[in-house]
Design goal:
The chain is mainly α. It contains four helices and no strands. Helix 1 packs across helix 3 and helix 2 runs parallel beside helix 4.
Amino acid sequence: EARASILSQILQPEAADRLGRIRIVKESRATDVENRLIMLARSGQLRAKVTEEQLKELLGAVAENNERDGTAGGKIVVSRRKGGWDDDDDLLDL
């Protein structure tokens, strides 16, 4: 509850909505961004509420940091089975 209270004070509504959508997709990334925002607020580095554009910049910085540390985990690898599973074979039975 304390986190939500702090975030509501430092984020504009559009930025809060974007962070909520990010949380749905990738909770760990949203938590990283929230932690960084709270740290910036506590250290007095935020002069005004964070806009959606500023949040996008922060997301990019967090993503770069994760890639550098090797904790990105955002790569998706699709491996397809080879042979025998072609739907066009069904047309030959007609």
